[in-house]
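Quick illustration, no need to memorize.
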Amino acid sequence: FSKIACAQGIQSFFTDKIPFSFSSGLYLADKIVQMMRPFLDEAKAPYHIYELGAGLGLLSKNILDILQAKYPYIYERTVMHVCEYSEKILLDWDKHRVFESHKGHVITEMFDLTAPVFSAKPHFIIASYLFDALPCRHVEINKTDISEILVRTFTSQREATRRCLKEISLDIGHLQQAV
């Protein structure tokens, strides 16, 4: 996927499979549904599925859209807990009515992964791109001692801007050729 996304540049943000399939697209949602379906067929309803760190909420919405269209017998017994740490994001979901088409099947919740509390026993937990946002420590162990390693990555604003402008100019040329 990454080679294709790189070749397509910014236009890949307007396709479903790349790069959104890694975090929220229909492609990933369908794969998750296919993975969950055999378990949900056997589980006791209602099915509680949690998406932690849901961001825009698109992955949860896409999963519910697929369940509603392809597996209505599972959809009718599913409750999607769409969770975020930021109250502002929850308010944005309400403001933009992201889950309007799935009333009765969605519970939006504040959720702190560092002190998790589940409002219902989860059947599945989805955490796409969440764990890399947690604070972590890098430890090196050798024969005689254990030490913590400071890992620091950054890009200067100038370098980031230069890369972005270069990619945009490549994409515009690519799109012009395609048209």
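The longest strand covers residues 78-84.
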